[in-house]
Every structure is written in structure tokens, then in C-alpha cells.
């Protein structure tokens, strides 16, 4: 192997020093990470945009965004800015379950299936004249973010069916959750 390096004009001493330098950098990064002093991972606007458009396909990038408070705050601002209609946090309800969320842009109502089969319906009612056809319901709940595809809005209404294990149901019942439509 040394002969291959020699033919290419590379000295074994240089290669050895390069490996030692890489190992030193790796150990330094590990120490800084343990001490909490390592800088946030590099996340570009383009990365945030891809996650905002399709979080399921860009889950690894989403996890990187969530790992940094600075990036997460920027990401939340991006989601708010790309939405057409917004529903901010709600006033805490006196009961533990929230079934109706209202805003000037749209209302959301959560109804359990009458068959008691774990199916829930999220009914969307637009309170404004729809200019752009909304296709997705976004929600921010703490550090969690998700998108749900919605059927076309007809006569100012749309309805989504979901299962009882969908995280949107927990988010729906949290008054601190914000919903957006795009």
C-alpha cells in the first residue's frame, strides 16, 4: 500500500498526520457536544422549505430542525408565513376536551364516529371567502409539527376522517396548538 501512495506522490507521514488530525477533530466535537457547546447543525432555508411542504418525506431534516431551538423558531415562523389562513392558540376550555376551535379565518370541529370504532372526523368550516383552494391543514403543537391533506373545500366546508391514534387529536385538545391552512 505504501508503494501505491509513493507512486502517486503521497507520503505515508502526511496520510498518518491527516488521520490523527481527523481523530482529534472528532474527539473535540464529541467533547463539545457533551458539554453542550457544539454549534447547531447547518440547516438552510431550502431545507426548512422542503420540510414545510412535506415533513414525512423529509423526516431526517425535520429532526435536525427540532434539535435546535433557533432553527425550530425559524421553522415555525416559516410555517406561519406560508399559510393562507390561520387559527392561533385557543383560550383554555373549562372541560378537558376541546371539540370546537374557532377563529376569524376558519373553524374546526372534532366529532367521534357514532359507531364508536375509533374513527374521528375533523370538520373544517371556512369563515372567509376562499381565494386559493386549500389542500393541507398544518398544525404546530409545541415542538411537534405535522400536515394533514384535506379534501377539496366545497361550499366553505371540508371533512377529514382519521383514526384515534393520530397525533392531531391530542394537538386538537391542546389550547396551545396553532392550526394553519395552505
Layout of helices and strands:
Layout: H1 2-7, H2 12-35, H3 45-53, H4 59-66, H5 69-82, E1 85-87, E2 100-101, E3 106-112, E4 119-126, E5 136-141, E6 144-149, E7 157-163, H6 167-172, E8 178-181
Antiparallel strand pairs: 1-8, 2-3, 3-4, 4-7, 5-6, 5-8
Could you give a short description of this structure?
This protein has 182 residues and is an alpha+beta fold.
Percent of sequence in beta strands: 15-25%
Over all CA atoms, what is the radius of gyration?
24 Å
Chain-averaged pLDDT: 78
Give the strand line-up of the largest sheet.
1-8-5-6
Instruction: List the domain count as a whole number.
Output: 2
How many angstroms separate the termini?
Answer: 59 Å
Order of helices and strands: HHHHHEEEEEEEHE
What is the CATH domain class of the largest domain?
A: Mainly Beta
CATH topology of the largest domain: Elongation Factor Tu (Ef-tu), domain 3
Largest sheet: 4 strands, antiparallel
**pLDDT < 50 runs, ≥5 residues:** none
E-strand count: 8
Task: Describe what you observe in this structure.
The protein has 182 residues and is an alpha+beta fold. The chain has two domains: 80 residues, no CATH class; 98 residues, Elongation Factor Tu (Ef-tu), domain 3, CATH 2.40.30. Helix content is 37%, strand content 24%. It contains six helices and eight strands; from the N terminus they run αααααβββββββαβ. The strands form two sheets. The protein has a four-stranded antiparallel β-sheet, covered by helices on one side. Strands 2-3-4-7 form a four-stranded antiparallel β-sheet, with no helix packed on it. The termini are far apart. The model has no long low-confidence stretch (mean pLDDT 78).
